Amino acid sequence: MSVILQLAFDGLTIGLIYVILAAGLVLILSVTEIFFVAYGMFFMWGAYAAWYCESGLGLSYPVAVLVAVAVTGVFGLLSYMLIFKRLQHMEGRFLVTVTGALGLSLILEKAVLPIFGTQPKSIPGIFTQAWRLGGVHIELKKLVLIGVGLLVTLVLFWIYEKTRVGRAMRAVSSNAEVAALHGIRPMWVYLLVMGLGCALAGLAGGLFAPAYNVHSGMGANVIANVLLMTMLGGMDSLLGAVVGGLVVGQVLSFGQYYFGQMSIVYLFLVIGVIIYFRPNGLLGHRTDLGV
Amino acid sequence: MTTPAGSSNGPLLRVEDVSKHFGGLVAVNHLTFEVEEGEILGIIGPNGAGKSTILGVISGFYPATAGKVFFEGQDITNLKSHGIVQLGIGRQFQASTLFMSLSVLDNVYYGFHLGYKTPVWNRLLRFPSALREERELRARGAEILDQMGLGAVKNEITKNLPHGHQRILGVCIALATDPKLLLLDEPMTGMNQTEIATMLELVRGIRESGITIVMIEHNMSAVMSLCDRIVVLDHGQEIAEGLPWEIRENDQVIEAYLGKDEFLLDD
Amino acid sequence: MRGFLSKHRRPSGFLVLLVAFALVPLWVKSPYYIDLLVMTMVNAGLAMTFVMLLRTGLISLCVAAFWGIGAYASAVLSVNAGLSFWICLPLSTLITAAFALVIGYVIIRNAGFTFIIMTTVLALLFVTVVGNIKALGGYNGISNIPAPDSIGSIVFDTKVDFFYLGLVILVVVVLIISAFYSSWAGRAWKAIGFNPRLAQSIGVNVFRYRLLSFVVGCAIAGLLGSFYAHYQTYINPNVFNLFPKTIFIQVYAVLGGAGFAILGPLVGAGLLTFLTETVTVVVQDKAEYTFMVVGALVILVVVFLPRGVLSLGEYFAKLWAWARRGGGRDGGPQPEQTLKSAGAAPEEAEGA
């Protein structure tokens, strides 16, 4: 019993990281219609940035996370302004944006090695308190992660559903041309979404860093999982991202324990079946994304 | 006439109690009409009346929510669009949907997709039969273009064509699929008077060659002069059906179009 | 024989290139460069299969995974079952095609993002799955894959022998691909790529033709995988990973020009393979710098030359034609020209 509770707790922790990641990716996919494979690398950069600020510069951990968010957000803005703004309206934009994103991820993935070194990193000594509750090992840093994750998700929903900015995002997502007719400048929305989405990846990385190891392969590792959950939930649904993230977190946590590394393969098969019957995912609406 | 199976003297196309919903929106609501062989049927109605939707349902692009569609007595309701083309229902699109970067002749040539018989390997080994087939189809493509008055521009790149020519080319592609029934989706939109006159002649010519036509059109004078029979839709429902002069004097139709100049203009 | 490679190019030019390429080992003796040439051929073939699917409007990021399936099938058949390379080659091609048929049947129903995500995940999963199967050697892979049996007096024991074997395979692959392109199947693919709705309206079964292109492309990737396994004699799952192998495959295609189905991948693969080696020498064997330079190059190409290096050729050809005509008219048909010829048609279009 305590094993199951422990797995559920760990699954919730990693699940909330995934929720933040999936939410950011869903925003980028549905609004900009760029297949942003480089997204996982922003997650990795967030983790490295938080590690560097904490261990290298000696900043306090919360400040380090904020710096990580700022760094990845600015990276996202720059990558849009310098690369994707030009590619977005080209002939055959699907191919060129994917290729551009692949090139970007190649740079971002390899750049951490000469800058930070090849050794895996960790941030020890952050929120080290831990309790045993009914046989479940509960660490404070994971509790903090869960709290922040929930808070960020709520804020994101509030922005997306209630604010003018969120309305603009939804309008551009459903039809950029119509949105432009209503006085929304799609360019600014794209820019905002790229910055926000990448900042969310950085936040997830910053939260991830104290609880897990930081290494150069984590960006590539995480992108498959995040893509799977956006498909599960639906590529244009923020709620779908939340559901997908939580479900995949639990499934991977239990799956890793019972099936080892192959659990992600089984997960993929299940999601494949779901997509076969519901091409838009569980909560998505649009079929034409990226076509 | 619930199952007009195989009856050679039944209608060519029968739309039976068809409804189409998009989410909560009812685009077509319990619509029933028939198309006789050899006629030109016009479908008119205000914007959003469900005209394009019903063409989409007939040609298999949208699955019907309810009801049935019969073509030559065969139930085609659940067939996919490529299967429906095979049976002999050709379709021209509303927007200028063409292979823009190909030449005009190639557009029609591609339209012969169903006409190819030679396997891939014969083409690689350049068997005479494969080459002959290609030559024949190209010649037939050029023939269609000549008949439709595009013979002189057959080697132009399609995106350089004027709008009127692009519309006609859309019809040519549909003709290449060798249809018995041709669905035209607003063939005269955006054309000037001369082009419309040409298009009228062409459509009459197509009917002369034995092809039945169902067309949607906004241009009332064109519809009135061209069509043998007219079905009027409003809010997805049929509100009138009859000969052009009957429709023109139908109170319900005039009411549906009230305030919309397009109907009252022209004649 | 005119038109058997591509309708735009005369095969005589191709034959000259082919003969010239076949003579390269007479001058270049270094096994290192021969190895690069062999890998260029494999990479070009893989990029051609990528372009094949791209023609139908689908972007597949799992080319390398099917390449891997072919390689593993061939390795297992030869190492465990003791079959000769000449049997393994067709068998592994068929096995890969069977995998492609089943997988494609499920994933091709969804175009756009769903398809590309499915293939991305498949590419990443290939490594996990193979790495966790003990019978396939796990992450350590399979070694001691035998060289092809000799045919008559031809013995495959040097890299030059493999160069010619690879060249023959590549020519066969090019012939197969161009056969498809020049047939109705290729035209249907192109029609789908241009406009799936219009393709449907002329009777193209979009799903079936996309599946056909997926299966043929993957089978060719499997064929190349079999060759690769016996050439390298050692394979492990990470060779076939998404990062960076599939990325490179896509980059070969885009760098050369995705609009050029045969020549684009050849030029792209050749350029990038040798460029990567040059960069590696310049940065003194620091692999991460090589990747970063390649990544930057990729971005520069898509931003400034989105239609590939070969589109430069088109540009120069236009310029040349323009210069030859004394600079009077542009290479392409001008609007007024179009109108004039259109005016010859019965209906007058000037008013439009």
Write a structural description:
The complex is a heterotrimer of chains A (291), B (267) and C (352). Chain A is mainly alpha-helical and 291 residues long. Helix content of chain A is 75%, strand content 3%. Chain A has one domain. Chain A is built from 11 helices and 2 strands, in the order H-H-H-H-E-E-H-H-H-H-H-H-H. Chain B is an alpha/beta fold and 267 residues long. Chain B has 2 domains: 162 residues, Rossmann fold (3-Layer(aba) Sandwich); 64 residues, no CATH class. In chain B, 37% of the residues lie in helices and 22% in strands. The longest helix of chain B has 20 residues. Chain B is globular, with a radius of gyration of 19 Å. The N terminus and C terminus of chain B are likely disordered. Chain C has a domain of 212 residues. Chain C is built from 15 helices and no strands. The two termini of chain C are 44 Å apart. Chains B and C meet through helix 2, helix 3, helix 4, helix 6 and helix 7 of B and helix 7, helix 8, helix 9 and helix 15 of C.
Offer a few descriptive terms.
heterotrimer; B: 267 residues; alpha/beta; Rossmann fold; 2 domains; 6-stranded mixed β-sheet; 4-stranded antiparallel β-sheet; disordered N terminus; disordered C terminus; C: 352 residues; mainly alpha; globular
Give the topology:
The complex is a heterotrimer of chains A (291), B (267) and C (352).
Chain A: H1 2-32, H2 39-56, H3 61-87, H4 93-116, E1 130-133, E2 136-139, H5 140-162, H6 164-174, H7 176-181, H8 186-211, H9 218-233, H10 238-259, H11 263-277
Antiparallel strand pairs in A: 1-2
Helix pairs in contact in A: 1-5, 1-6, 1-8, 1-9, 1-10, 2-3, 2-4, 2-8, 2-9, 3-4, 3-8, 5-6, 5-8, 6-8, 9-10, 9-11
Chain B: E1 13-22, E2 25-35, E3 40-44, H1 51-58, E4 66-71, E5 74-75, H2 81-87, E6 89-92, H3 104-111, H4 120-124, H5 128-147, H6 163-176, E7 181-185, H7 193-208, E8 212-216, H8 220-226, E9 229-234, E10 237-242, H9 244-248, H10 251-256, H11 261-264
Parallel strand pairs in B: 3-8, 3-9, 6-7, 7-8
Antiparallel strand pairs in B: 1-2, 1-4, 4-5, 9-10
Chain C: H1 11-22, H2 24-27, H3 31-55, H4 63-79, H5 85-107, H6 112-131, H7 159-182, H8 184-194, H9 196-201, H10 206-232, H11 242-256, H12 263-282, H13 287-304, H14 310-324, H15 335-343
